[in-house]
């Protein structure tokens, strides 16, 4: 099957299946994300949210179906009618189009905030060290951490570390930014500063896909909310529709439990 003629959105997920040890984790998931769109993904623990995000940047392979970013496959290439997985080096190059922010920040502990951001654009985009440092300093300013360039992760609060992680993801100028429960590991008083940074990105028109349990935030920031359960998209629509007047019993039950 050719993907080229079928792609329209910035992110196209088509008929994706994924199972682990014979258990379906994603079941025939299709999703189109438009440029500039902010999409929140809600769902119970174990419903496949992280797996879905990870298929977008090919941290997970898919068993069937495909994913494109701006019309191009990330982890595969066509040879004739068949899809073949690319070599790791080629995947790394293509993956720069997708930024990812994880629950546990995943900063390099032995590098300063600035060095954490400088690393990838130098390695993957062949930016000079000087240009990368300038870019990194600007991004630290943007997330409100201009004075923390030389701090090591252990010297920063969780909220500050997560803001560095967001700056690091932005350094590759990705076409889409994925967040996997970006505030779940934070003390409650640190959640707001991270959500504020994400909110600013949304206002600037960055394409965002956010897995979150922060329902109020999802309502404020999203163009579209998706509810996933047992690897199936059960419901999607505007925040008003999905959060205000959910139709599916599972969505109602989930919202009843988290609100
Ligand atoms: P969520 O992010 O919604 O909590 P996940 O996508 O992490 O859910 O996981 C969905 C299901 O897939 C869970 O049942 C989980 O145990 C399983 N799973 C996820 N990753 C793996 C893996 N690498 N090997 C085996 N099972 C996995
Ligand atoms: Mg998860």
Automatic annotation (TrEMBL):
Phylogenetic lineage: Bacteria, Bacillati, Actinomycetota, Actinomycetes, Micrococcales
Domain ABC transporter: from-to ranges: 11-255
Enzyme class (EC, first level): translocase
Enzyme Commission code(s) on record: 7.4.2.1
Family: Belongs to the ABC transporter superfamily.
Source organism of the structure: Conyzicola lurida
Keywords of the record: ATP-binding, Nucleotide-binding, Transport
Xref: PROSITE patterns: ABC_TRANSPORTER_1, ABC_TRANSPORTER_2
Coiled coil ranges: none
A Pfam cross-reference name: ABC_tran
Protein name, as recorded: ABC-type polar-amino-acid transporter
Gene Ontology molecular function terms on file: ATP binding; ATP hydrolysis activity; ATPase-coupled polar amino acid-transporter activity
Catalytic activity: a polar amino acid(out) + ATP + H2O = a polar amino acid(in) + ADP + phosphate + H(+)
Tagged with keyword Nucleotide-binding: yes
């Amino acid at each position: 099957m050719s993907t080229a003629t079928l792609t329209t959105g910035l992110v196209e997920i088509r008929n994706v299946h994924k199972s682990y040890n014979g258990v379906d984790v994603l079941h025939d998931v299709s999703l189109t994300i438009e440029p500039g769109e902010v999409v929140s993904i809600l769902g119970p623990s174990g419903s496949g949210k992280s797996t879905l995000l990870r298929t977008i940047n090919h941290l997970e392979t898919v068993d069937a179906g495909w994913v494109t970013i701006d019309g191009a496959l990330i982890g595969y290439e066509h040879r004739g009618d068949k899809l073949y997985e690319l070599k790791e080096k080629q995947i790394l190059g293509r993956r720069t189009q997708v930024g990812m922010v994880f629950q546990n920040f995943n900063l390099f502990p032995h590098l300063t905030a600035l060095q954490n951001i400088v690393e990838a654009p130098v390695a993957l985009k062949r930016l000079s060290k000087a240009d990368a440092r300038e870019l990194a300093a600007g991004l630290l300013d943007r997330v409100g951490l201009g004075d923390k360039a030389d701090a090591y992760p252990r010297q920063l609060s969780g909220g500050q570390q997560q803001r560095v992680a967001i700056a690091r993801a932005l350094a590759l100028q990705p076409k889409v930014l994925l967040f996997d429960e970006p505030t779940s590991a934070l003390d409650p008083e640190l959640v707001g500063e991270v959500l504020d940074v994400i909110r600013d990105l949304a206002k600037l028109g960055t394409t965002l896909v956010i897995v979150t349990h922060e329902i109020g935030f999802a309502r404020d920031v999203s163009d579209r909310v998706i509810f996933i359960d047992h690897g199936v998209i059960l419901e999607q629509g505007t925040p008003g529709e999905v959060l205000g007047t959910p139709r599916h019993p599972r969505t109602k039950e989930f919202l009843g439990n988290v609100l």
